[in-house]
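User: Design a sequence. Structure:
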């Protein structure tokens, strides 16, 4: 279980770093992105470990990746300005 937690935290850091460097103009501060990546990965590993039980390191890390990416995707801002059109009268 220690390896699951350590591995998922490292995966979260790596995904947060990658997301920030590729989408820096569309994400908030680096600290928020890194902490969201780690928290999402730890949550994903916990949920996967709870569902599958112990002895499944690879599925737990895959669950960490999925939840971390989903959490990071919630931080991404729209690329352009939102344009509002007035409704025709």
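Assistant: Done.
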């Amino acid at each position: 279980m220690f390896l699951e937690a350590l591995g998922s935290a490292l995966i979260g850091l790596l995904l947060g770093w990658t997301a920030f460097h590729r989408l820096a103009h569309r994400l908030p501060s680096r600290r928020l992105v890194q902490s969201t990546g780690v928290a999402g990965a730890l949550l994903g590993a916990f949920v996967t470990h709870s569902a599958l039980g112990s002895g499944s390191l690879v599925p737990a890390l895959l669950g960490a990746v999925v939840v971390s990416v989903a959490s990071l995707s919630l931080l991404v801002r729209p690329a352009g300005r939102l344009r509002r059109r007035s409704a025709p009268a």
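The radius of gyration is 17 Å. The first helix runs from residue 2 to 22.
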